[in-house]
Amino acid sequence: MAELMTKQSFEKLKKKLETLKKKRAKISKTIGEAREEGDLKENAGYHAAKEEQGLNEMRIRELESKLGNVTIVDEKNLPRKDQITLGSTVKIKELKSGEEFKYTLVSAMESDVLEYKISPDSPLGGELINRKAGETIEVEAPAGLIKYKILEIR
């Protein structure tokens, strides 16, 4: 099944892929310079550059594969703005502690909890999708059932 993504998000990931591809030349140059230093068995710079090259190539293949399996969603065709949908930024309040959080709902390949970007595939994202401001949701977490109130949708 294709991953749903906005055109803006698709272009952002495409740019990231281009950056990784440009990085190939820099890594290659580093490997070449390290090779010239002699004995490769004990050449930490060479081994670090080879590892970086492997990780870079893995990320390139991963992004190419994901971008090849994307369905671009026209934001005009998404549900009304008063409903949480892909691209919505949501402010929620954990009812027990009173702590507030702000998340942006993105596709699974863009999700990054450290950047407060969650996907509908996550427990919280799945509960938020298609909801409206003022609603209360319950999310099953390792710590137990957590209740949130949706304060704002942008």
Query: What integer value in Å does the Rg equal?
Result: 21 Å
Please name the CATH topology of the largest domain.
Chitinase A, domain 3
CATH superfamily of the largest domain: Transcription elongation factor, GreA/GreB, C-terminal domain
The CATH top-level class label of the largest domain: Alpha Beta
**Helix content range of the residues, please?**
25-40%
Number of alpha- plus pi-helical segments: 3
Describe the 3D structure:
The protein is an alpha/beta fold. The protein has helices spanning 7-36, 44-67, 123-128, and strands at 3-6, 70-73, 89-94, 100-105, 117-118, 136-141, 144-153. The strands form two sheets. Strands 5-4-3-7-6 form a five-stranded mixed beta sheet. The protein is elongated and about 65 Å long.
In a few lines, what is going on in this structure?
This protein is α/β, with parallel strands linked by helices and 154 residues long. The protein is 39% helix and 25% strand.
What features would you highlight for this structure?
154 residues, two-stranded parallel sheet, Chitinase A, domain 3, 3 helices, 7 strands, 5-stranded mixed beta sheet, Helix Hairpins, 2 domains
SSE order and pairing:
Elements: E1 3-6, H1 7-36, H2 44-67, E2 70-73, E3 89-94, E4 100-105, E5 117-118, H3 123-128, E6 136-141, E7 144-153
Parallel strand pairs: 1-2, 4-5
Antiparallel strand pairs: 3-4, 3-7, 6-7
